[in-house]
Amino acid sequence: MIPIVPAIIPTSAAHLVRTLAGFSFSPEVHVDVVDGVFVSSVSWPYNPVGNPEQTKPVTDGFTLEVDLMVQNPLEAADVWVAAGADMLVFHIETISLDAFKRFAESTKISLGVCALNDTPLETLLPYLEFSDYVQVMGIATIGAQGQPLDERVFERIKTLKESNSRLLVSVDGSVNRETIARLAKAGVDRFICGSAIAGASNPKEAHRELSSLIN
Questions:
Q1: What's the pTM value of the predicted model, to 2 decimals?
Q2: Which residues contact 202 (CB under 8 A, 6 or more apart)?
């Protein structure tokens, strides 16, 4: 089964807990955190300021992936590891290769790397040696859900798979009924799905429908 992972951009600790209660059908969840610096939008725990550890009793029920769309990802990484994160996504625009390598060597959790679609893939490739998977962006501007598909993602998937056919490729952004089959055909191994699930009146049924298109 190709995983389809529900995603949330939390507006508060209560919002995260409440949303995750509705995601009990999924073993994995993806939490996007944005600091208002690396990208223009901002989420909890930056605004309002909060402590992710307070949600650990709930997040421990899932395989928790946290996408660090923040200017200081190492500081955020320590916070989310303490809060029970099982997987972290680093954006290479925010961290040097040497710093990422040092963090990778010091942690046991799974690490992914990602690059904005305006960033040449050649810049990303050296990070793959120290990561467990790569995340590609299905949207041009990160930090918000419900955006249109950025067609450049298909060429980037192709290039990454050609560089390493065993590389696990996850896609985040514009994963919905209209795009998911095309993305799967292109070689995506894992799907991060925001508004098509979180914004649905019945998230569980939306997840089932998406899965039926590729599984």
A1: 0.96
A2: none
